[in-house]
UniProtKB/TrEMBL annotation:
Database matches in InterPro entries: Glyas_Bleomycin-R_OHBP_Dase, Glyas_Fos-R_dOase_dom, VOC_core
Domain VOC: from-to ranges: 7-137
CDD domains, per database record: VOC_like
Organism, scientific name: Lactuca saligna
The protein's name: VOC domain-containing protein
Length: 137
């Protein structure tokens, strides 16, 4: 399955101190803070010209789980946990066709939309268990 026109959208990183992490990326790599969507946890969006973004997500302080590839809330590899866990995001021009292909291949997914309803998202794992998101353009 070739996702023609796919490009890197953002990388998400979970941290217990996202302000400290944001300051590091701003100072070391020249990222700038941009407007962040409102979620049920604290997030910071950073952008590096021309269009690469880093999405910093506040780690759940009640978790007893170590940081890992899935989520701070659950050590089970379930795509429903990826919106708050470590994942790499790509955008595609034909989101619905892309999701249909994933399902035809038997890949377990979790679909949702951003709170503003404009961007559709699908979360899933690669064969090595790395979290992936594909977002509509």
């Amino acid at each position: 399955m070739a996702a023609v026109g796919a490009f890197l959208n953002h990388v998400a990183r979970e941290s217990s101190d996202i302000d400290r992490l944001a300051n590091f990326y701003q100072e070391i790599f020249g990222f700038e803070r941009i407007e962040s969507p409102k979620f049920d946890c604290k997030v910071i969006w950073l952008k590096q010209a021309p269009s690469f973004c880093l999405h910093l997500i506040e780690r759940d302080s009640n978790t007893k789980l170590p940081e890992g590839p899935w989520s701070s809330n659950d050590a089970v590899a379930d795509p429903k946990n990826l919106p708050r866990g470590h994942h790499l995001c790509f955008s595609v021009s034909n989101f619905d066709s892309f999701v249909k292909t994933l399902k035809e291949k038997g890949i377990e997914t979790h679909e949702k939309a951003q709170p503003n309803g404009k961007t559709k998202q699908v979360f899933f794992f690669d064969p090595d268990g790395n979290g992936l998101e594909v977002a509509s353009e």
